[in-house]
Amino acid sequence: xxxxxxxxxxxxxxxxxxxxxxxxxxxxxxxxxxxxxxxxxxxxxxxxxxxxxxxxxxxxxxxxxxxxxxxxxxxxxxxxxxxxxxxxxxxxxxxxxxxxxxxxxxxxxxxxxxxxxxxxxxxxxxxxxxxxxxxxxxxxxxxxxxxxxxxxxxxxxxxxxxxxxx
Length: 166
Prior knowledge:
Layout: H1 4-25, H2 41-44, H3 46-54, H4 57-60, H5 64-76, E1 91-93, E2 98-101, E3 107-110, E4 118-120, E5 144-145, E6 153-156, E7 161-164
Antiparallel strand pairs: 1-2, 2-3, 3-4, 5-6, 6-7
């Protein structure tokens, strides 16, 4: 009978091999684990990252890895991990009237407009004469990019399903 440690190691080894097998089936890596095309280098680089994450067993089990992936998606999308506070330390001066948020470049304040209330340039429907004013704390959300797959599936810039049309 296997010890707990041996059992854990066998589960981890099986998981690692299943990831490698999936990457091979997808055509992203060859039998030596090398990317098969320039566009697949980033995908092949995920194998050592996955191996590193597995060392932290609590990330491998339950919801922890899922949470970590959400954080990585926000970082990749240049979105703040925690809500913007609107604190003075979050702003840089663009000119004598306009401030830009350091943590999220789409947030501005213009002292000449609406008493300097902050607005999000990246909100859908934004126009310079029709700003999307925000309240703090504020958590910018990924914006929906219209990416079409068969069946007209729309996903946002983080690859999350937004809607499906029949």
